[in-house]
Design a protein that fits this description.
Elements (H helix, E strand, L loop, with lengths): L2 H7 L15 H4 L21 E2 L2 E9 L6 E8 L18 E8 L11 E6 L2 E2 L1 E6 L2 E7 L5 E4 L10 E7 L12 E2 L7 E2 L3 E2 L3 E6 L4 E9 L4 E8 L13 E6 L5 E10 L2 E10 L6 E2 L2 E2 L2 E7 L2 E7 L4 E5 L5 E5 L2 E2 L2 E6 L13 H13 L4 E4 L6 H10 L2 E5 L8 H10 L3 H4 L13 H18 L5 E8 L7 H11 L4 E6 L9 E6 L12 E8 L1 E2 L15 E2 L3 H20 L3 E7 L28
Parallel strand pairs: 11-12, 27-28, 27-36, 28-29, 29-30, 30-31, 32-33, 33-36, 34-35
Antiparallel strand pairs: 1-14, 2-3, 2-4, 4-10, 5-9, 5-14, 6-13, 7-8, 7-10, 15-16, 16-19, 17-18, 17-22, 18-19, 20-21, 22-23, 24-25, 25-26
Helix pairs in contact: 3-4
Length: 604
Protein backbone atom coordinates (compact mmCIF):
# COMPACT_ATOMS: atom_id res chain seq x y z
CA UNK A 1 0.00 0.00 0.00
CA UNK A 2 1.48 3.40 -0.96
CA UNK A 3 0.82 6.78 0.68
CA UNK A 4 -2.17 7.70 -1.45
CA UNK A 5 -3.78 4.32 -0.79
CA UNK A 6 -3.25 4.79 2.93
CA UNK A 7 -4.84 8.23 2.78
CA UNK A 8 -7.87 6.88 0.93
CA UNK A 9 -8.29 4.12 3.49
CA UNK A 10 -8.78 6.65 6.29
CA UNK A 11 -12.41 7.69 6.15
CA UNK A 12 -13.12 11.18 7.46
CA UNK A 13 -16.53 9.99 8.62
CA UNK A 14 -16.07 6.29 9.25
CA UNK A 15 -18.97 3.88 9.48
CA UNK A 16 -19.74 2.72 12.97
CA UNK A 17 -20.49 -0.89 12.23
CA UNK A 18 -20.27 -3.17 15.27
CA UNK A 19 -16.89 -4.76 15.77
CA UNK A 20 -16.53 -8.51 15.40
CA UNK A 21 -16.23 -9.79 19.01
CA UNK A 22 -12.77 -10.99 19.98
CA UNK A 23 -11.54 -12.23 23.33
CA UNK A 24 -8.15 -12.84 24.89
CA UNK A 25 -7.42 -15.94 26.93
CA UNK A 26 -7.19 -13.73 30.03
CA UNK A 27 -10.60 -12.24 29.36
CA UNK A 28 -12.07 -15.69 28.78
CA UNK A 29 -10.74 -16.87 32.15
CA UNK A 30 -11.53 -13.70 34.07
CA UNK A 31 -12.85 -14.23 37.60
CA UNK A 32 -15.16 -11.28 38.25
CA UNK A 33 -14.69 -11.78 41.98
CA UNK A 34 -10.93 -11.27 41.71
CA UNK A 35 -10.13 -8.60 39.12
CA UNK A 36 -6.67 -7.00 38.93
CA UNK A 37 -6.03 -7.51 42.65
CA UNK A 38 -2.23 -7.05 42.58
CA UNK A 39 -0.89 -4.10 44.57
CA UNK A 40 -1.45 -1.22 42.13
CA UNK A 41 1.53 0.98 43.12
CA UNK A 42 4.74 -1.12 43.11
CA UNK A 43 6.97 1.88 43.82
CA UNK A 44 5.43 2.62 47.22
CA UNK A 45 4.04 -0.50 48.89
CA UNK A 46 2.43 -0.82 52.30
CA UNK A 47 1.27 -3.89 54.15
CA UNK A 48 -2.44 -3.07 54.04
CA UNK A 49 -4.46 -2.61 50.89
CA UNK A 50 -8.15 -2.87 50.03
CA UNK A 51 -8.98 -3.56 46.39
CA UNK A 52 -12.19 -1.85 45.24
CA UNK A 53 -12.27 -3.49 41.80
CA UNK A 54 -15.30 -5.62 41.04
CA UNK A 55 -18.97 -5.00 40.39
CA UNK A 56 -20.30 -1.51 41.07
CA UNK A 57 -23.82 -0.18 40.47
CA UNK A 58 -24.02 2.26 37.58
CA UNK A 59 -26.43 4.59 35.82
CA UNK A 60 -25.97 6.56 32.61
CA UNK A 61 -28.20 9.58 32.17
CA UNK A 62 -28.45 12.41 29.68
CA UNK A 63 -27.41 15.88 30.74
CA UNK A 64 -29.68 17.39 28.07
CA UNK A 65 -32.98 15.83 29.16
CA UNK A 66 -32.91 13.14 26.52
CA UNK A 67 -34.91 10.07 27.43
CA UNK A 68 -31.86 8.05 28.38
CA UNK A 69 -31.39 6.06 31.53
CA UNK A 70 -29.27 2.93 31.62
CA UNK A 71 -28.52 1.12 34.86
CA UNK A 72 -27.14 -2.14 36.15
CA UNK A 73 -23.78 -3.54 37.20
CA UNK A 74 -20.39 -2.49 35.76
CA UNK A 75 -17.18 -4.44 36.33
CA UNK A 76 -14.50 -1.99 37.45
CA UNK A 77 -11.80 -1.27 36.25
CA UNK A 78 -13.24 -1.72 32.75
CA UNK A 79 -14.81 1.18 30.90
CA UNK A 80 -18.51 0.97 29.90
CA UNK A 81 -17.41 0.66 26.28
CA UNK A 82 -15.30 -2.45 26.98
CA UNK A 83 -17.04 -5.82 26.60
CA UNK A 84 -15.58 -7.02 29.91
CA UNK A 85 -17.43 -4.26 31.76
CA UNK A 86 -20.77 -5.84 30.93
CA UNK A 87 -22.24 -2.49 29.82
CA UNK A 88 -21.31 -2.11 26.11
CA UNK A 89 -22.34 1.53 25.86
CA UNK A 90 -20.29 4.41 24.43
CA UNK A 91 -20.52 7.38 26.77
CA UNK A 92 -21.48 10.46 24.77
CA UNK A 93 -20.34 14.04 25.52
CA UNK A 94 -23.80 14.92 26.90
CA UNK A 95 -24.07 11.89 29.18
CA UNK A 96 -23.17 11.34 32.82
CA UNK A 97 -21.87 8.01 34.12
CA UNK A 98 -22.45 7.44 37.84
CA UNK A 99 -20.72 4.50 39.52
CA UNK A 100 -21.47 3.55 43.11
CA UNK A 101 -20.54 0.98 45.73
CA UNK A 102 -20.31 0.59 49.49
CA UNK A 103 -16.90 0.87 51.09
CA UNK A 104 -15.83 -2.24 53.05
CA UNK A 105 -15.52 -0.45 56.39
CA UNK A 106 -17.94 0.55 59.12
CA UNK A 107 -16.47 3.86 60.19
CA UNK A 108 -13.37 6.06 60.30
CA UNK A 109 -10.05 4.44 61.25
CA UNK A 110 -8.96 4.69 64.88
CA UNK A 111 -5.86 6.02 66.67
CA UNK A 112 -5.52 9.02 64.36
CA UNK A 113 -5.00 6.94 61.24
CA UNK A 114 -6.07 8.22 57.83
CA UNK A 115 -8.03 6.52 55.05
CA UNK A 116 -6.74 7.28 51.53
CA UNK A 117 -8.75 6.53 48.39
CA UNK A 118 -6.78 5.99 45.16
CA UNK A 119 -7.76 6.02 41.48
CA UNK A 120 -5.34 4.78 38.81
CA UNK A 121 -7.16 6.89 36.21
CA UNK A 122 -10.68 8.04 35.32
CA UNK A 123 -11.49 9.20 31.81
CA UNK A 124 -12.09 12.13 31.46
CA UNK A 125 -13.61 14.28 34.23
CA UNK A 126 -14.44 12.71 37.59
CA UNK A 127 -16.17 13.90 40.75
CA UNK A 128 -15.77 11.64 43.78
CA UNK A 129 -18.24 11.73 46.67
CA UNK A 130 -18.27 9.84 49.96
CA UNK A 131 -21.63 9.77 51.71
CA UNK A 132 -22.82 12.51 49.37
CA UNK A 133 -19.98 14.92 50.13
CA UNK A 134 -17.27 15.72 47.61
CA UNK A 135 -13.86 14.20 48.30
CA UNK A 136 -12.05 15.27 45.14
CA UNK A 137 -12.59 16.18 41.49
CA UNK A 138 -10.12 15.50 38.71
CA UNK A 139 -9.74 16.41 35.03
CA UNK A 140 -7.63 14.31 32.67
CA UNK A 141 -8.16 10.71 31.69
CA UNK A 142 -4.65 9.30 32.03
CA UNK A 143 -3.17 10.22 35.41
CA UNK A 144 -3.63 8.90 38.97
CA UNK A 145 -5.23 10.88 41.77
CA UNK A 146 -6.21 10.28 45.39
CA UNK A 147 -8.09 11.77 48.31
CA UNK A 148 -7.98 11.58 52.11
CA UNK A 149 -11.57 10.62 52.92
CA UNK A 150 -11.17 10.19 56.68
CA UNK A 151 -13.34 13.17 57.61
CA UNK A 152 -16.11 12.04 55.26
CA UNK A 153 -16.53 8.60 56.81
CA UNK A 154 -19.29 7.78 59.26
CA UNK A 155 -20.25 4.96 61.57
CA UNK A 156 -22.08 2.19 59.74
CA UNK A 157 -22.68 2.28 55.98
CA UNK A 158 -20.33 4.36 53.80
CA UNK A 159 -21.23 4.99 50.17
CA UNK A 160 -18.68 5.82 47.45
CA UNK A 161 -19.99 7.58 44.33
CA UNK A 162 -18.02 8.57 41.24
CA UNK A 163 -19.57 10.77 38.54
CA UNK A 164 -17.81 10.80 35.17
CA UNK A 165 -18.14 12.77 31.95
CA UNK A 166 -16.07 12.29 28.80
CA UNK A 167 -16.21 14.52 25.73
CA UNK A 168 -13.56 12.37 23.98
CA UNK A 169 -12.41 14.05 20.73
CA UNK A 170 -14.95 16.89 20.72
CA UNK A 171 -12.69 19.19 22.76
CA UNK A 172 -9.04 20.03 23.40
CA UNK A 173 -8.50 17.56 26.27
CA UNK A 174 -5.88 14.82 25.99
CA UNK A 175 -7.45 11.95 24.09
CA UNK A 176 -4.74 9.74 22.58
CA UNK A 177 -6.05 7.63 19.69
CA UNK A 178 -9.66 7.51 20.92
CA UNK A 179 -12.49 8.56 18.59
CA UNK A 180 -16.25 8.63 18.95
CA UNK A 181 -16.23 7.63 15.29
CA UNK A 182 -13.49 5.03 15.10
CA UNK A 183 -11.74 4.10 11.85
CA UNK A 184 -8.30 3.71 10.28
CA UNK A 185 -5.61 4.68 12.78
CA UNK A 186 -8.18 5.80 15.38
CA UNK A 187 -9.91 3.44 17.75
CA UNK A 188 -12.96 2.92 19.93
CA UNK A 189 -13.41 5.59 22.56
CA UNK A 190 -13.51 4.59 26.20
CA UNK A 191 -14.36 6.33 29.45
CA UNK A 192 -14.99 5.61 33.11
CA UNK A 193 -12.81 3.97 35.77
CA UNK A 194 -10.34 2.19 33.52
CA UNK A 195 -7.57 1.66 36.06
CA UNK A 196 -7.71 0.04 39.53
CA UNK A 197 -9.51 1.72 42.42
CA UNK A 198 -8.17 0.99 45.89
CA UNK A 199 -7.96 2.15 49.47
CA UNK A 200 -5.38 2.04 52.24
CA UNK A 201 -5.17 3.01 55.89
CA UNK A 202 -2.05 4.94 56.87
CA UNK A 203 -0.66 6.42 60.11
CA UNK A 204 -1.45 9.99 61.11
CA UNK A 205 1.89 11.02 59.57
CA UNK A 206 2.67 9.13 56.39
CA UNK A 207 4.82 9.18 53.26
CA UNK A 208 2.92 10.86 50.44
CA UNK A 209 5.49 10.78 47.64
CA UNK A 210 8.74 8.90 47.10
CA UNK A 211 11.36 9.18 44.39
CA UNK A 212 14.52 7.05 44.19
CA UNK A 213 16.99 8.48 41.68
CA UNK A 214 20.14 6.52 40.77
CA UNK A 215 23.41 8.46 40.69
CA UNK A 216 25.16 5.90 38.52
CA UNK A 217 28.62 7.47 38.31
CA UNK A 218 28.76 8.02 42.08
CA UNK A 219 27.36 4.58 42.95
CA UNK A 220 24.68 6.09 45.16
CA UNK A 221 20.91 6.51 45.06
CA UNK A 222 19.17 9.73 46.01
CA UNK A 223 16.06 9.39 48.18
CA UNK A 224 13.52 12.20 48.04
CA UNK A 225 10.21 11.99 49.87
CA UNK A 226 7.42 14.11 51.25
CA UNK A 227 5.18 13.54 54.27
CA UNK A 228 1.63 14.75 54.71
CA UNK A 229 2.90 16.78 57.66
CA UNK A 230 6.15 17.10 59.64
CA UNK A 231 7.06 13.97 61.57
CA UNK A 232 8.34 15.94 64.56
CA UNK A 233 4.82 17.14 65.33
CA UNK A 234 3.96 13.65 66.57
CA UNK A 235 4.48 13.10 70.29
CA UNK A 236 6.98 10.38 71.08
CA UNK A 237 8.45 10.34 67.57
CA UNK A 238 12.16 10.96 67.03
CA UNK A 239 11.60 12.71 63.70
CA UNK A 240 14.04 10.43 61.89
CA UNK A 241 13.40 8.69 58.59
CA UNK A 242 15.58 5.64 57.99
CA UNK A 243 16.28 3.98 54.62
CA UNK A 244 17.54 0.40 54.34
CA UNK A 245 18.91 -0.77 50.97
CA UNK A 246 19.20 -4.47 50.13
CA UNK A 247 20.27 -6.31 47.00
CA UNK A 248 18.17 -8.61 44.83
CA UNK A 249 18.75 -11.48 47.27
CA UNK A 250 17.72 -9.46 50.32
CA UNK A 251 21.27 -8.94 51.59
CA UNK A 252 21.78 -5.54 53.32
CA UNK A 253 23.73 -3.02 51.25
CA UNK A 254 23.53 0.28 53.17
CA UNK A 255 21.55 2.35 55.65
CA UNK A 256 20.96 6.11 55.70
CA UNK A 257 18.93 8.67 57.63
CA UNK A 258 16.95 11.32 55.72
CA UNK A 259 17.26 14.93 56.81
CA UNK A 260 14.68 17.67 56.64
CA UNK A 261 14.92 20.08 53.70
CA UNK A 262 14.90 23.83 54.19
CA UNK A 263 12.25 24.53 51.56
CA UNK A 264 9.58 22.50 53.31
CA UNK A 265 9.14 20.90 56.73
CA UNK A 266 7.50 17.95 54.98
CA UNK A 267 10.35 17.26 52.52
CA UNK A 268 13.22 14.90 53.34
CA UNK A 269 16.14 13.46 51.41
CA UNK A 270 19.38 11.54 51.69
CA UNK A 271 21.91 9.55 49.67
CA UNK A 272 22.40 5.82 50.10
CA UNK A 273 25.61 4.10 48.99
CA UNK A 274 25.35 1.22 46.54
CA UNK A 275 28.64 -0.59 46.92
CA UNK A 276 29.69 -3.28 44.42
CA UNK A 277 27.04 -1.83 42.14
CA UNK A 278 25.15 -4.14 39.79
CA UNK A 279 23.93 -2.17 36.74
CA UNK A 280 20.48 -2.55 35.18
CA UNK A 281 20.47 -3.72 31.56
CA UNK A 282 17.84 -5.34 29.28
CA UNK A 283 19.56 -8.72 29.49
CA UNK A 284 20.26 -8.33 33.23
CA UNK A 285 17.54 -6.16 34.84
CA UNK A 286 18.99 -6.00 38.34
CA UNK A 287 16.72 -4.33 40.93
CA UNK A 288 17.64 -3.18 44.43
CA UNK A 289 15.08 -3.03 47.22
CA UNK A 290 14.53 -0.33 49.81
CA UNK A 291 12.60 -0.21 53.06
CA UNK A 292 11.80 3.20 54.51
CA UNK A 293 10.60 3.84 58.06
CA UNK A 294 9.05 7.19 58.90
CA UNK A 295 7.68 7.04 62.40
CA UNK A 296 4.85 4.49 62.33
CA UNK A 297 4.78 4.38 58.52
CA UNK A 298 6.80 1.73 56.69
CA UNK A 299 6.94 1.37 52.92
CA UNK A 300 8.79 -0.88 50.47
CA UNK A 301 10.20 0.26 47.14
CA UNK A 302 12.86 -0.61 44.56
CA UNK A 303 15.31 1.07 42.19
CA UNK A 304 17.88 0.26 39.54
CA UNK A 305 21.35 1.60 38.88
CA UNK A 306 21.49 2.84 35.30
CA UNK A 307 22.10 6.01 33.31
CA UNK A 308 20.90 7.09 29.85
CA UNK A 309 23.09 9.42 27.80
CA UNK A 310 23.94 10.47 24.25
CA UNK A 311 27.69 10.10 23.63
CA UNK A 312 29.91 10.09 20.51
CA UNK A 313 31.28 6.79 19.25
CA UNK A 314 34.72 6.19 17.75
CA UNK A 315 33.53 7.81 14.49
CA UNK A 316 32.18 10.82 16.40
CA UNK A 317 28.59 9.76 15.64
CA UNK A 318 26.12 10.49 18.47
CA UNK A 319 24.87 7.26 20.06
CA UNK A 320 22.25 6.32 22.61
CA UNK A 321 24.13 4.88 25.56
CA UNK A 322 23.04 2.79 28.51
CA UNK A 323 25.55 2.98 31.37
CA UNK A 324 27.91 4.83 29.02
CA UNK A 325 27.95 2.00 26.47
CA UNK A 326 26.31 2.33 23.03
CA UNK A 327 23.08 0.36 22.74
CA UNK A 328 21.02 0.09 19.58
CA UNK A 329 17.35 0.56 20.45
CA UNK A 330 15.42 -2.20 18.71
CA UNK A 331 12.03 -0.72 19.49
CA UNK A 332 8.37 -1.47 18.94
CA UNK A 333 5.33 0.79 19.19
CA UNK A 334 2.72 -0.11 21.80
CA UNK A 335 -0.72 1.51 22.08
CA UNK A 336 -2.10 -0.62 24.89
CA UNK A 337 -5.45 -1.70 23.41
CA UNK A 338 -7.24 -4.98 24.09
CA UNK A 339 -10.35 -6.26 22.25
CA UNK A 340 -12.18 -7.20 25.45
CA UNK A 341 -10.79 -4.53 27.81
CA UNK A 342 -9.93 -1.63 25.45
CA UNK A 343 -7.53 0.51 27.52
CA UNK A 344 -7.55 -2.01 30.38
CA UNK A 345 -5.55 -5.22 30.15
CA UNK A 346 -7.69 -8.15 31.41
CA UNK A 347 -5.00 -9.21 33.85
CA UNK A 348 -1.45 -8.69 35.06
CA UNK A 349 -0.45 -11.78 33.08
CA UNK A 350 -1.59 -10.06 29.89
CA UNK A 351 0.94 -7.26 30.48
CA UNK A 352 3.69 -9.81 31.05
CA UNK A 353 2.78 -11.69 27.87
CA UNK A 354 3.11 -8.62 25.63
CA UNK A 355 6.45 -7.60 27.13
CA UNK A 356 7.99 -11.08 27.11
CA UNK A 357 6.81 -11.76 23.56
CA UNK A 358 8.49 -8.58 22.35
CA UNK A 359 11.69 -9.58 24.15
CA UNK A 360 11.58 -12.98 22.47
CA UNK A 361 11.32 -11.22 19.11
CA UNK A 362 14.52 -9.30 19.85
CA UNK A 363 13.14 -5.95 21.00
CA UNK A 364 14.76 -4.12 23.91
CA UNK A 365 12.58 -0.99 23.83
CA UNK A 366 8.86 -0.23 23.77
CA UNK A 367 7.49 3.16 22.86
CA UNK A 368 4.26 3.67 24.87
CA UNK A 369 2.31 5.65 22.32
CA UNK A 370 -0.39 8.24 23.07
CA UNK A 371 -1.28 6.64 26.39
CA UNK A 372 -0.10 6.40 30.00
CA UNK A 373 -0.29 2.81 31.20
CA UNK A 374 -1.06 1.68 34.73
CA UNK A 375 1.87 1.49 37.15
CA UNK A 376 2.17 -2.29 37.04
CA UNK A 377 3.01 -2.26 33.32
CA UNK A 378 6.09 -0.12 34.00
CA UNK A 379 6.98 -2.34 36.95
CA UNK A 380 7.02 -5.38 34.67
CA UNK A 381 9.23 -3.49 32.19
CA UNK A 382 11.58 -2.72 35.09
CA UNK A 383 11.87 -6.30 36.26
CA UNK A 384 11.89 -7.91 32.79
CA UNK A 385 14.40 -5.49 31.27
CA UNK A 386 12.47 -3.46 28.71
CA UNK A 387 13.49 0.15 28.04
CA UNK A 388 10.52 2.51 27.62
CA UNK A 389 9.99 5.66 25.60
CA UNK A 390 6.95 7.41 27.08
CA UNK A 391 4.72 9.66 24.98
CA UNK A 392 2.94 12.66 26.42
CA UNK A 393 -0.72 12.08 25.63
CA UNK A 394 -1.73 14.36 22.78
CA UNK A 395 -4.63 16.76 22.83
CA UNK A 396 -6.03 19.55 20.71
CA UNK A 397 -7.90 19.20 17.44
CA UNK A 398 -6.55 16.82 14.82
CA UNK A 399 -6.05 18.24 11.34
CA UNK A 400 -5.29 15.06 9.38
CA UNK A 401 -3.98 16.56 6.09
CA UNK A 402 -1.61 19.00 7.78
CA UNK A 403 -0.40 16.72 10.56
CA UNK A 404 0.00 13.44 8.70
CA UNK A 405 -0.43 13.43 4.94
CA UNK A 406 1.10 16.71 3.71
CA UNK A 407 4.40 16.24 5.61
CA UNK A 408 4.72 12.77 4.04
CA UNK A 409 4.05 14.17 0.55
CA UNK A 410 6.12 17.34 1.07
CA UNK A 411 8.98 16.60 3.50
CA UNK A 412 10.11 20.25 3.63
CA UNK A 413 7.04 20.97 5.78
CA UNK A 414 8.62 18.96 8.60
CA UNK A 415 11.14 21.69 9.34
CA UNK A 416 9.62 24.81 7.77
CA UNK A 417 6.17 24.93 9.34
CA UNK A 418 6.48 26.90 12.60
CA UNK A 419 4.78 25.51 15.67
CA UNK A 420 4.37 29.02 17.06
CA UNK A 421 1.15 29.34 15.06
CA UNK A 422 -0.85 27.06 17.31
CA UNK A 423 -4.21 26.93 15.45
CA UNK A 424 -2.57 25.28 12.43
CA UNK A 425 -1.54 22.40 14.66
CA UNK A 426 -4.83 22.05 16.49
CA UNK A 427 -4.12 24.30 19.47
CA UNK A 428 -6.75 27.06 19.27
CA UNK A 429 -7.58 27.22 22.98
CA UNK A 430 -5.20 28.75 25.49
CA UNK A 431 -6.77 26.59 28.23
CA UNK A 432 -5.92 23.50 26.22
CA UNK A 433 -2.28 24.52 25.95
CA UNK A 434 -2.11 25.20 29.67
CA UNK A 435 -3.75 21.87 30.46
CA UNK A 436 -1.31 19.96 28.23
CA UNK A 437 1.68 21.63 29.86
CA UNK A 438 0.38 20.79 33.33
CA UNK A 439 -0.27 17.18 32.34
CA UNK A 440 3.30 16.91 31.01
CA UNK A 441 4.57 17.89 34.44
CA UNK A 442 2.21 15.49 36.18
CA UNK A 443 3.15 12.63 33.83
CA UNK A 444 6.84 13.03 34.66
CA UNK A 445 6.09 13.18 38.39
CA UNK A 446 3.83 10.12 38.21
CA UNK A 447 6.31 7.97 36.25
CA UNK A 448 9.74 9.31 37.19
CA UNK A 449 10.35 6.53 39.72
CA UNK A 450 10.35 3.76 37.10
CA UNK A 451 13.92 2.85 36.02
CA UNK A 452 12.86 1.53 32.60
CA UNK A 453 11.85 4.95 31.22
CA UNK A 454 14.72 6.46 29.26
CA UNK A 455 12.98 9.06 27.13
CA UNK A 456 10.01 11.44 27.20
CA UNK A 457 8.34 11.96 23.80
CA UNK A 458 6.88 15.47 23.83
CA UNK A 459 4.96 15.75 20.53
CA UNK A 460 3.98 13.17 17.93
CA UNK A 461 3.54 14.14 14.26
CA UNK A 462 2.62 17.69 15.17
CA UNK A 463 -0.61 16.78 16.96
CA UNK A 464 -1.29 19.79 19.16
CA UNK A 465 2.34 20.90 18.91
CA UNK A 466 3.22 24.33 20.29
CA UNK A 467 6.21 26.14 21.80
CA UNK A 468 8.48 23.12 21.34
CA UNK A 469 11.64 24.94 22.39
CA UNK A 470 10.27 26.09 25.75
CA UNK A 471 8.50 22.83 26.58
CA UNK A 472 11.54 20.72 25.68
CA UNK A 473 13.64 22.84 28.01
CA UNK A 474 10.97 22.45 30.71
CA UNK A 475 11.16 18.63 30.51
CA UNK A 476 14.95 18.60 30.52
CA UNK A 477 15.03 20.78 33.64
CA UNK A 478 12.33 18.75 35.38
CA UNK A 479 14.04 15.40 34.79
CA UNK A 480 17.77 15.83 34.24
CA UNK A 481 18.44 12.10 34.15
CA UNK A 482 16.37 11.29 31.07
CA UNK A 483 16.36 12.12 27.38
CA UNK A 484 13.72 13.98 25.36
CA UNK A 485 12.38 13.30 21.87
CA UNK A 486 10.95 16.74 21.22
CA UNK A 487 9.16 16.14 17.92
CA UNK A 488 8.56 12.56 16.87
CA UNK A 489 7.89 12.51 13.15
CA UNK A 490 7.36 16.05 11.89
CA UNK A 491 7.93 19.75 12.65
CA UNK A 492 11.41 19.47 14.10
CA UNK A 493 12.65 22.62 15.84
CA UNK A 494 16.16 21.26 16.37
CA UNK A 495 15.46 20.63 20.04
CA UNK A 496 15.84 17.60 22.28
CA UNK A 497 18.27 14.71 22.16
CA UNK A 498 17.07 13.06 18.94
CA UNK A 499 16.56 13.75 15.27
CA UNK A 500 13.37 11.70 15.13
CA UNK A 501 11.81 10.57 11.83
CA UNK A 502 8.79 8.52 10.78
CA UNK A 503 9.14 6.62 7.51
CA UNK A 504 6.46 4.26 6.25
CA UNK A 505 6.66 4.81 2.50
CA UNK A 506 10.24 5.46 1.34
CA UNK A 507 13.42 3.45 1.62
CA UNK A 508 14.86 3.89 5.10
CA UNK A 509 17.81 6.24 5.42
CA UNK A 510 19.80 8.22 8.00
CA UNK A 511 19.57 12.00 8.16
CA UNK A 512 22.84 13.40 9.57
CA UNK A 513 22.38 15.62 12.62
CA UNK A 514 24.25 16.72 15.72
CA UNK A 515 21.64 14.76 17.74
CA UNK A 516 21.21 11.01 17.77
CA UNK A 517 19.15 9.83 14.80
CA UNK A 518 16.19 7.48 15.34
CA UNK A 519 13.41 6.11 13.19
CA UNK A 520 10.72 6.56 15.83
CA UNK A 521 8.14 4.87 13.58
CA UNK A 522 8.49 2.61 10.55
CA UNK A 523 7.15 -0.64 9.14
CA UNK A 524 3.46 -1.01 9.87
CA UNK A 525 3.03 -4.03 7.58
CA UNK A 526 -0.55 -5.28 7.64
CA UNK A 527 -1.39 -8.98 7.70
CA UNK A 528 -5.02 -9.66 8.64
CA UNK A 529 -5.66 -13.20 9.84
CA UNK A 530 -9.27 -14.46 9.50
CA UNK A 531 -10.81 -15.41 12.81
CA UNK A 532 -8.53 -12.99 14.65
CA UNK A 533 -9.69 -9.63 13.26
CA UNK A 534 -12.39 -7.37 14.68
CA UNK A 535 -13.40 -5.69 11.41
CA UNK A 536 -13.29 -6.44 7.70
CA UNK A 537 -11.71 -3.05 6.99
CA UNK A 538 -7.91 -3.13 6.90
CA UNK A 539 -5.54 -0.25 7.61
CA UNK A 540 -1.78 -0.51 7.24
CA UNK A 541 1.07 0.71 5.08
CA UNK A 542 1.69 -2.47 3.09
CA UNK A 543 -0.62 -5.45 3.01
CA UNK A 544 0.28 -9.15 2.97
CA UNK A 545 -2.23 -11.94 2.51
CA UNK A 546 -0.48 -14.68 4.47
CA UNK A 547 2.10 -15.18 7.19
CA UNK A 548 4.79 -16.48 4.85
CA UNK A 549 4.76 -13.33 2.70
CA UNK A 550 4.58 -11.12 5.81
CA UNK A 551 7.54 -12.86 7.46
CA UNK A 552 9.58 -12.64 4.26
CA UNK A 553 8.90 -8.92 3.94
CA UNK A 554 9.66 -8.26 7.60
CA UNK A 555 12.95 -10.18 7.44
CA UNK A 556 13.97 -8.32 4.29
CA UNK A 557 13.17 -4.96 5.89
CA UNK A 558 15.33 -5.75 8.91
CA UNK A 559 18.27 -7.23 7.03
CA UNK A 560 18.41 -4.96 3.99
CA UNK A 561 17.24 -1.60 5.35
CA UNK A 562 17.49 -1.34 9.14
CA UNK A 563 20.73 -3.15 10.00
CA UNK A 564 22.94 -1.48 7.35
CA UNK A 565 22.00 1.93 8.75
CA UNK A 566 23.38 1.24 12.23
CA UNK A 567 26.98 1.75 11.13
CA UNK A 568 25.93 5.02 9.45
CA UNK A 569 24.49 6.50 12.63
CA UNK A 570 21.06 4.95 13.20
CA UNK A 571 20.64 4.75 16.99
CA UNK A 572 17.19 3.22 17.22
CA UNK A 573 14.20 2.09 15.21
CA UNK A 574 10.61 1.66 16.41
CA UNK A 575 8.55 -0.86 14.43
CA UNK A 576 4.79 -0.35 14.23
CA UNK A 577 3.44 -2.19 16.26
CA UNK A 578 2.97 -4.74 19.11
CA UNK A 579 -0.53 -5.90 18.18
CA UNK A 580 -3.34 -5.38 15.73
CA UNK A 581 -5.94 -2.84 16.86
CA UNK A 582 -9.34 -2.90 15.20
CA UNK A 583 -8.78 -1.82 11.55
CA UNK A 584 -5.02 -1.62 12.03
CA UNK A 585 -3.80 -5.15 11.32
CA UNK A 586 -0.14 -4.18 11.35
CA UNK A 587 0.70 -5.82 14.67
CA UNK A 588 3.26 -8.52 15.35
CA UNK A 589 0.56 -10.13 17.49
CA UNK A 590 -3.09 -10.50 16.54
CA UNK A 591 -5.50 -8.26 18.43
CA UNK A 592 -6.64 -11.20 20.59
CA UNK A 593 -2.98 -12.09 21.32
CA UNK A 594 -3.59 -15.69 20.18
CA UNK A 595 -1.13 -15.67 17.26
CA UNK A 596 2.37 -14.23 16.99
CA UNK A 597 2.96 -13.43 13.33
CA UNK A 598 6.71 -13.92 13.67
CA UNK A 599 8.68 -16.88 14.84
CA UNK A 600 10.72 -15.93 17.89
CA UNK A 601 14.07 -16.13 16.12
CA UNK A 602 13.06 -14.78 12.73
CA UNK A 603 14.85 -11.45 12.90
CA UNK A 604 18.17 -12.86 14.09
Amino acid sequence: MNLLSAIKSVRLFPKREPLIPLTTVWGENLDSGHVREEYPRPQLVRGNYTCLNGYWDYTITSTKRRSLRLSGKILVPFSPEAPLSGVNHTLQPDELLTCQRELPLDGPPENGQRCILHFGAADQWARVLVNGRQAVSHTGGYLPFSADITELLQKGRNLLTVQIRDVTDTSYHSVGKQRLGRGGMFYTAQSGLWQPVWMETVPAVYIRTLLLTPCYDKETVHVSLTLNRPLSHQKGQSGSIVCHVSDADGKPVSRSVCTNQSDSLCSYSCYCDVNDMQPWMPDSPYLYHMRISAGEDQVESYFAMRTFTIEPDSQNLPRFCLNHKPLFLQGVLNQGYWPDGLYTAPSDEAFVYDITQMKKLGFNMIRMHAKVECARWYYHCDRLGMIVWQDMVNGGHYHAPLMTWFPALFPWLKTHLPDTFCPLLGRRERRGRQEFEQECLETVRALAAFPCISTWVLFNEGWGQFQSVRLTRMLKELDTGRLVDSASGWFDRGQGDFKSEHNYFDRLTVIPDKRAFVLSEYGGYACPLPGHISTRDVYGYRRYQNLKDFQTAYTKLMKEEVRPLVSRGLCGAVYTQVSDIEEETNGLLTYDRKICKLDSGLEE
